[in-house]
Design a protein that fits this description.
This protein is an alpha/beta fold. It has helices at residues 26-40, 56-65, 83-93, 103-119, 136-145, 165-169, 176-181, 193-207, 219-227, 231-247, 255-267, 288-311, 313-337, and strands at 45-50, 71-76, 123-128, 157-162, 182-188. It folds into two domains: 1-15 and 191-274 and 283-338, no CATH class; 26-188, P-loop containing nucleotide triphosphate hydrolases (Rossmann fold), CATH 3.40.50.
Length: 338
């Protein structure tokens, strides 16, 4: 809609992952290095977690794109299923016939397939996305899949990818054996404020006009405080900011527009997500992104309150004078009465 106005070749802040706009922060590069190492060394269990919109999909797509030809991948995205449905989806992904077969038969054929792949020096990998939706019972079923092995090696490598809640689920006592099998465990952290600016400039440059945002004054701080360094939230905020500048006929996005958009999104509860209301006396690393975002929201409220006060200072001064006069009048009346 606003591409022509800003001389963009493409929209810079679409929510759908686009490989042309790939930006790897330090945490994304580290995650890819860990995952790549785990796959090349054929480490049994790998865990990747991160907040919604932190870039998990970007990392996984980049990882899959660079897998060598010996890898046979089964990628599962639908995780609200029964154990039999899960095994059926895995087998189907690996190209096995699944119709009319019970769980026992499915497991038997999966085992035979994995042994065959091992003999061919292929590397089967099971990648389960949105793994935070898996129940403890289903996670235990997945652990049992890792028991499929020869005398020398595991036949199936398993990668669990999910939101931060997955780490909490894995702390269930009955999942202790699964936790002990996770050899690589990496949590994606938010971008730093410098990386946030670089991320935005990178996307604007690829789109064709890096001069739309000049990051003057408190603009970088506003974007960072509101987004918490989460790429998806950065995209939403910047997309709305460009739309606002377009509707106002402006060629640049400044701090005032960012502040206006942030306040508008906040007032409409645009960012509200279900939260764990459990009271905790400690601050855990897992809660850092949420706390940062809350701090951003509070900061924006204070900024808006400060602006409101500044705008109304003349009226406040007049009212203060009136109150002072009324107090004087009351004092005089008291003296007359008493």
């Amino acid at each position: 809609m606003y591409e022509k106005h800003f001389s963009f070749k493409h929209k810079p802040f679409e929510l759908v992952p686009n490989p042309d706009f790939l930006f790897l922060s330090s945490t994304h590069k580290k995650a890819l290095t860990y995952l790549d190492y785990g796959i090349k060394e054929k480490i049994g269990f790998i865990l990747l977690t991160g907040e919604i919109g932190s870039g998990k999909t970007t990392i996984i797509r980049n990882l899959i794109k660079n897998l060598n030809s010996s890898v046979k991948l089964s990628r599962i995205n639908n995780t609200k299923v029964s154990s039999e449905q899960l095994i059926s989806m895995i087998n189907e992904d690996f190209g096995l016939e699944v119709d009319g077969k019970n769980k026992t038969k499915l497991l038997s054929e999966l085992n035979a397939f994995l042994i065959d792949q091992y003999s061919k020096k292929s590397q089967p990998i099971l990648l389960i996305d949105e793994a935070q939706n898996l129940s403890p019972d289903l996670l235990e079923e997945i652990r049992l899949l890792s028991n499929l092995e020869t005398d020398r090696a595991k036949l199936l490598q398993i990668m669990l990818v999910g939101q931060t809640e997955l780490k909490k689920t894995l702390m269930h006592p009955e999942l202790m054996q699964l936790r002990q099998r996770i050899n690589i465990n990496y949590h994606i952290t938010p971008l730093t404020i410098d990386e946030t600016v670089k991320y935005i400039r990178h996307r604007l440059t690829i789109a064709g006009n890096p001069e739309v945002m000049r990051f003057q004054g408190d603009m970088p701080g506003l974007i960072y405080r509101f987004s918490g360094g989460i790429p998806r939230l950065i995209n939403i905020l910047c997309d709305f900011a460009l739309l606002t500048a377009f509707t106002e006929g402006k060629k640049e996005v400044n701090a005032d527009i960012i502040r206006e958009v942030a306040h508008d999104l906040e007032s409409r509860d645009y960012w509200n997500e279900p939260r764990d209301n459990t009271v905790s006396t400690t601050v855990e690393d897992d809660n850092y992104p949420d706390l940062l975002k809350e701090a951003g929201n509070i900061a924006l409220r204070l900024i808006n309150l400060e602006e409101t006060i500044k705008k109304n200072l003349p009226e406040i001064a007049v009212l203060t004078e009136k109150v002072d006069r009324l107090e004087e009048d009351i004092s005089e009346l008291r003296e007359q009465v008493f």
